């Protein structure tokens, strides 16, 4: 059992990971400013975790050093258990919209880069040298090779991707500057789905940036139709292909990564987390319609700037190093994501 600090733990991936960690017996301190998340998600995580729940929530901002210090200083006693120190950090906190990052690059650099710098500075001061960082396949830009391995060129094409690549470099510099650091840089592809209970799931603010929540909102009648950006991509059906990973598989990937870091000697792991399977936009719509018995009206529109025709993970290294691979297929993604949408038509504000 470890004492863990989870930044951004109320978000989509963070909340599902918190549940997996609680079920494994870990004690959690979560810091979140709720800019793009809701504290309701963690209330539901606590409900799902039941008697295994040992979670303390701090409303705070990783860009503010005193807030991060509060997370390290907090003392929580419950069932004769206490947080004496932080053994490791899982770092989810940050901004994640590609389109918004083009409009507000300074904001993205401040939160994603300066916030990470502040977190690492406080960690070092407290002797905590284990961190799992939430990175992104966006750093590959237009991949020259698919499936894309971890040693592919880092060539981001938007400010969001640049911030993720910069934090990755910061972590590499830190690992090279002094011994004792245990670091994992996890590059996600396309997290989707929800917990099968329907209690926690993805709750995007405003218009979603990603395909799957748009599909579920159209099916629920919140939007009239889905826009498909481009029908002339060099793919089998002319629509873009992506690698979709069930959020529970992703959460379990974090748990397994953390275990390896804590059990093995200091090192830096850089791993893709994806299914290794490419699904086109039309394939995703068709599978959703068949699985959930719902129609999803769509219209084709022009290609969107910055989109690549195909992004698929080469996740073989994660399987070799962690013994981890995705277990849930596209049907489960659709079923669980639709159950969340039905139970929570307006997300956590329902």
Automatic annotation (TrEMBL):
The keyword NAD applies. The gene is galE. It comes from the Eukaryota. InterPro entries: Epimerase_deHydtase (IPR001509), NAD(P)-bd_dom_sf (IPR036291), UDP_G4E (IPR005886). Residues 5-260 form the NAD-dependent epimerase/dehydratase domain. It comes from Paulinella micropora. Its cofactor is NAD(+). Belongs to the NAD(P)-dependent epimerase/dehydratase family. GO terms for biological process: galactose metabolic process. This is UDP-glucose 4-epimerase. It catalyses: UDP-alpha-D-glucose = UDP-alpha-D-galactose. Homodimer. GO terms for cellular component: cytosol. GO terms for molecular function: UDP-glucose 4-epimerase activity. Keywords: Carbohydrate metabolism, Galactose metabolism, Isomerase, NAD, Plastid. It is an enzyme of class 5 (isomerase). Its EC number is 5.1.3.2. Pathway: Carbohydrate metabolism; galactose metabolism. The keyword Methyltransferase does not apply.
């Amino acid at each position: 059992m470890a004492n863990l600090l989870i930044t951004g733990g109320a978000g989509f991936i963070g909340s599902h990971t918190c549940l997996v960690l609680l079920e494994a017996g870990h004690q959690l301190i979560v810091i979140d400013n709720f800019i793009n998340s809701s504290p309701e998600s963690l209330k539901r995580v606590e409900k799902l975790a039941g008697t295994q729940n040992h979670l303390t929530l701090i409303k705070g901002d990783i860009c503010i050093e005193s807030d991060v210090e509060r997370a390290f200083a907090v003392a929580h006693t419950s069932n004769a258990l206490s947080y004496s120190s932080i053994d490791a950090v899982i770092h989810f906190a940050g901004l994640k919209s590609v389109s918004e990052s083009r409009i507000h690059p300074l904001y993205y650099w401040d939160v994603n880069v300066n916030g990470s710098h502040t977190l690492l500075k406080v960690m070092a001061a407290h002797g905590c040298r284990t961190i799992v960082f939430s990175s992104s396949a966006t750093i590959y830009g237009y991949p020259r090779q698919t499936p894309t391995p971890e040693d592919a060129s880092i060539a981001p094409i938007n400010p969001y991707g640049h911030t993720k690549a910069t934090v990755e470099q910061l972590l590499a510099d830190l690992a090279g500057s002094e011994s004792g650091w245990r670091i994992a840089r996890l590059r996600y592809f396309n997290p989707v789905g929800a917990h099968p209970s329907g209690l926690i799931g993805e709750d995007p603010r405003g218009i979603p940036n990603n395909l799957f929540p748009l599909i579920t909102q159209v099916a629920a009648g919140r939007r009239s139709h889905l826009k498909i950006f481009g029908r002339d991509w060099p793919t089998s059906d002319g629509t873009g292909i992506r690698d979709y990973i069930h959020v529970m598989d992703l959460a379990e990937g974090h748990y397994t990564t953390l275990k390896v870091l804590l059990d093995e000697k200091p090192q830096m792991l850089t791993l893709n987390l994806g299914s290794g399977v490419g699904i086109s936009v039309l394939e995703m719509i068709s599978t959703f319609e068949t699985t959930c018995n719902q129609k999803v009206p769509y219209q084709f529109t022009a290609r969107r700037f910055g989109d690549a025709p195909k992004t698929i993970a080469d996740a073989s290294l994660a399987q070799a190093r962690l013994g981890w691979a995705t277990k849930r297929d596209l049907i489960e993604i659709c079923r669980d994501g639709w159950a969340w949408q039905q139970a929570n038509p307006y997300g956590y504000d329902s």
